[in-house]
Amino acid sequence: MSGSIVRALKCRECGQEYPIEPIHVCEFCFGPLEVAYDYDKLKGKFTRTLIESRPQTMWRYKELLPIDGEPTVGAQNGFTPLIRARNLEKALGVKELYIKNDSVCYPTLSFKDRVVSVALSKAVEFGFKTVACASTGNLAGSVAANAAAAGLESYVFIPHDLEQGKVLGAGIFGTKIIGIRGKYDDVNRLCSEVAGKYGWGFVNVNVRPFYAEGSKSLGYEIMEQLGWKAPKHVVVPMASGSLCTKIDKSIKEFIKLGLVEDNGTAVYGAQATGCSPISKSVKEGTDLIHPVIADTIAKSLAIGNPADGFYANRVIRESGGWSEDVSDQEVIAAMKLLAETEGIFAETAGGVTLGCAQKMIESGRLPRDESIVLCITGNGLKTQEAVINEIAKPRIIEASLKEFDVLAEADKAKLAS
Amino acid sequence: MAVSVRIPTPLRKLTGGADEVSIDAASISELIDNLEVAHPGLKERLCDANGEIRRFVNVYLNDEDVRFLDGRDTALKDGDEVSIVPAIAGGK
Fold it and tell me: What is the ipTM of this complex?
């Protein structure tokens, strides 16, 4: 790469700038720091042709990701399918619907592989030997796997009552996994203290400004896969609200660099009703986020005190989007609908995204005749508890054609009736 | 009205190291002004140019965020406890 275009870390509140270091909070006003770039340096150099000539990973957009040189961790991550969801279009009565399917993101089946690739590459640059995270599950698995592959020691901190698939999906990589008696917000608070004391590279504490930038690759891919076009509407699940803001940033960056036309993209946020502080604020027309005690089966979104809630709220309102929330039952119904129409088994958060999209289509917030992209960010095999009692059990028979004939006959009769 | 105010670590340089100070004030905005008199420099750390409490500074009155009370106009009474707490940074 011809020199990084990263300029500084900049406070999102008071604008104070800091050099590139593992820090994440403004010393002066406590606002969050964000990576600032000199986009002018890319003018005329970062072209569609250049990007298309590169391997199909998230790193084909490396100039817009805040590392020096080549990624040392997760170089294969990203570039998941964008599919035209024609069956779901019929089911929902909309004209043009796409699924960005990060439920098959390499290597741990969630969009967290994107942010972790950036965070750990940056952690290696900073010289950290131990990396860590506070997680609702997907991030833990991704940090554990990517750290293992990179030869880094890792600690992952999770709420003690996560789904088995999330616990297993981190523990298998030989990470040191710590379950905290409490909600994610308690885990997060503890991790702030641990990060201060132990000097590790906490991907979502002291490395967070870099980590969060990784989410932009999801947006870049959507635009490239739509044929270098920004969607009219994009629906994003919200926990901290970070993804929502980074999708918006990715679109603005591509517009600024002349890679896509401004399509007036509206960003929509999806939450579970049992943890909906951001959607509530949007619906009530305020930018005050009232923290809640999270209670939902969509555990990956169960952040009661969302770090980027204010900014997500602003992106949604300024882009002309909206926000919704759905009950646990609606989450399950949407998971099944997505699976049965498109053959995609999304985790509970995917049910939240589709369920909210459905609700916003019905209420007219999402128009039926314009392009809509749903971001599916995690895999259903990790949240099996949510649907295990909701699906048909196998009908057990002997290895006898006669017994099967009886079943087939019954199915035929049912179909005819 | 004497109110006790808990000061977070990053701001203790301005209070001579004290983690708790006692301030006379009838409202949150008066409290901030009187804090500034007693410990110059505190106000600009707590409030933006318009005098609003900064977004990532939380001010709690007896464990309730004053944003969800009457904001800067929130009334104080004798014996109240006010905590200044930077928002917990980080998170996924």
Answer: 0.90
Tell me whether residue B64 is in a domain.
yes
- In a 3-state reduction of DSSP, which class is residue B83? strand
Residue A371 pLDDT grade (very low, low, confident, very high; cuts 50, 70, 90): very high
Chain A, 255 to 314: residues with Cβ < 8 Å from chain B are 288, 290, 303, 305-308, 310
Quick one: which H or E segment has residue A123? helix A112-126
A25 touches chain B (CB under 8 A): yes
pTM of the model: 0.95
Q: Where in chain A is the domain with CATH 3.40.50.1100?
A: 6-75+112-211, 82-108+215-386
The answer, yes or no, to whether residue A1 has pLDDT greater than 50, is no
Residues of A in contact with B92 (CB under 8 A): 112, 133-136, 139, 204, 239-240, 242, 303, 307
A82-108+215-386: which CATH architecture? 3-Layer(aba) Sandwich (3.40)
Residue B79 located in a structural domain? yes
User: Are residues B56 and A13, on separate chains, in Cβ contact within 8 Å?
Assistant: yes
Where in the sequence is the domain holding B21, given as residue range(s)? 2-86
DSSP A382-413: G-GGGTTTTSPPPPP--S-HHHHHHHHHHHHH
Question: Over the stretch B22-73, which tens digit does the pLDDT of each residue have?
Answer: 999 999 999 999 999 999 999 999 999 999 999 999 999 998 999 999 999 9
Going across the sheet that includes A6-11, the strands are A17-18, A6-11, A33-37
